[in-house]
UniProtKB/TrEMBL annotation:
Record bears the keyword Signal: yes
Signal peptide from the UniProt entry: 1-20
Protein name: Apple domain-containing protein
Keyword terms, alphabetized: Signal
Recorded superkingdom: Eukaryota
Keyword Signal in record: yes
Organism lineage: Eukaryota, Fungi, Dikarya, Ascomycota, Pezizomycotina
């Protein structure tokens, strides 16, 4: 019995040490080693641990949300729109005068990928032809988020919001 208890204690201690190394001992860091942001949001991780700073990983524009005041409110807007938002970016607008929240329906595609959206015939016997070379989404490298002077904006935040089938959210 003593050996079993000692063995279990050893396993627990090893697990705690491994977690401390993975997160540098910071309880605010998630599994990926990023500092958890927006810890008040109702997500699976009690905040967001999947994001990047200084880059815009978003892709297909859905909507610009003008009355958002910080990165957490931007993420929350995406969480509240599960039908069309799965990516967000909080960055300076094109003029570099103020930050904006933009919600997206898709990630940025890799640079060698182009997606063409063609409509299937509906109904097939009506003589409707798909749009030839219809709307496209062309891939590219993930762009920097910049300030008015062109320098990288380390305060910009972008990342995914995943609405999981079980009803939880990850970001």
């Amino acid at each position: 019995m003593r050996c079993t208890i000692a063995f279990i204690a050893c396993i627990v201690a090893t697990s705690d040490v491994a977690t401390a190394f993975k997160t540098d001992g910071d309880p605010e860091k998630g599994n990926e080693g990023l500092k958890k942001i927006c810890t008040h949001l109702k997500t699976q991780d009690k905040g967001c641990v999947r994001y990047t700073r200084g880059y815009d990983v978003t892709g297909v524009l859905t909507t610009v949300t003008p009355n958002v005041n910080d990165e957490c409110a931007c993420i929350e807007e995406c969480i509240k729109a599960p039908g069309f938002c799965d990516t967000y970016v909080w960055k300076y607008n094109d003029e570099g005068t103020r930050r904006t929240c933009t919600l997206y329906s898709n990630f940025n595609l890799p640079s060698n990928v182009t997606v063409v959206y063609d409509e299937p015939p509906t109904p097939p016997n009506q003589g409707y032809d798909p749009i030839s070379g219809g709307p496209t989404q062309v891939g590219a490298l993930v762009p920097k988020a910049t300030k008015a002077g062109g320098e990288i904006d380390e305060g910009a935040v972008s990342g995914p919001v995943w609405q999981l089938e079980g009803g939880e959210t990850q970001c």
